[in-house]
Design brief:
Strand content: 25-35%
Radius of gyration: 16 Å
Low-confidence stretches: none
Largest sheet: 3 strands, mixed
Number of helices: 3
Distance between the termini: 27 Å
Strand order of the largest sheet: 1-3-4
Number of strands: 5
Length: about 120
């Protein structure tokens, strides 16, 4: 996803969205969230991506979507994958409803990352 500033001009950087839909989301027992299985290959790719990556789960039954900012989730759960496991289960909180406020949050995360990169990128020919 690309974003624009208040003047309507395109901004640098990207936000990656991985959208997955289901007829009905499965709530994890004893939690206020929905579980989702991810593959190790996707985990490795998303964890190392410098741009923010968000998983969005859409529920066809309720016509609602929920999001999870993946890189901080992975950092907070370092033991997510058991040795040699090909998949792991993550939890998307029910409070993370995908709406206009969520898009503003995503935009803010991207801007935060770009501020960290200010002056750090050198392009060579």
């Amino acid at each position: 996803m690309t974003t624009h500033d208040r003047g309507g001009f395109a901004e640098s950087g990207l936000i990656y969205l991985q959208l997955k839909a289901a007829r009905r989301l499965q709530q994890a027992r004893g939690t206020n969230g929905y579980k989702f299985s991810i593959e190790r290959k996707h985990f490795s790719q998303w964890r190392n991506e410098p741009s923010p990556v968000f998983l969005i789960r859409y529920c066809a039954a309720t016509k609602k979507a929920y999001y999870l900012y993946l890189q901080p989730y992975f950092k907070a759960n370092p033991g997510l994958f058991k040795p040699k496991a090909k998949t792991a289960t993550i939890l998307i909180p029910r409070v993370n409803t995908f709406n206009a406020a969520a898009v503003r949050y995503m935009h803010g995360r991207k801007r935060h990352i770009l501020k960290q990169l200010h002056g750090a990128i050198v392009h060579i020919a």
